[in-house]
Amino acid sequence: MHQTPRTAAGLPSRLALPIFIVVAALFLGSLGYFFKISSSQEGAAFGRNALQQANAPTSAMGGSDTKAAPLPQTITAQSGSGPMQGAPAQGVPEAAGEPAGAPPGPVMAEVQRYRAQLERNPNDVAALMGLGKLELQAGMYAKAGEGFTRVARLQPSNVEALYGEATAAQALGQRDRAVAAYRQVLRVAPGDQRAKDARAALLTLGAAANP
């Protein structure tokens, strides 16, 4: 009697090959599915990392975060530089003495506070000086000049007020007024730091230190 050849597992040889092919196909399919899931997870992780790096601050990538510099609260003396930095060129008066835009919110709040103090006491020197400095830095040269002039009348030896008056006048293109105020700075405090700036400003204006 003829017997069908069998494999080591006891299966007929004619069935072993199809079964092997099916098992191999299932194995390869499972392996491909596994790699597909793994690749998608890696891609998602890469996308998250890229998004985090894009949203990171510049300081984390070797740069530096840019912050607005605080507004100076005092008139800065600049040896040999003449008028304050940021003032418009001499001879170009500001329209109506007001800047193109209003001061920033915090600065405007301080301006209103000083103005309220001056309504109660128009001769409050501290309020006049504080308001004048803020207005000068905000480009409100006409108003700043008025305040500094009032202080100079109340305190003729107030060098800071005289220098502020001169700076505001020069910014407005009021040459004669600026020259007079700079010369007064030299008379009142010839050894003061602002006297050096006043001399430089007079040279810029083409005026002598002494009339």
Estimated share of beta-strand residues: under 5%
CATH architecture level-2 label of the largest domain: Alpha Horseshoe
Largest sheet: none
Kindly report how far apart the N and C termini lie: 142 Å
Helix-strand sequence: HHHHHHH
Looking at the structure, the CATH topology of the largest domain is Serine Threonine Protein Phosphatase 5, Tetratricopeptide repeat
Q: In total, how many beta strands?
A: 0
Low-pLDDT runs = 53-100
Task: Tell me the count of domains.
Answer: 2
Overall pLDDT metric:
72
Instruction: State the name of the first-level CATH class of the largest domain.
Output: Mainly Alpha
Helix amount: 55-70%
Count of alpha/pi helices: 7
Report the structural category. mainly alpha
Shape: rod-shaped
| Backbone CA Rg | 40 Å
> What is the CATH superfamily classification of the largest domain?
Tetratricopeptide repeat domain
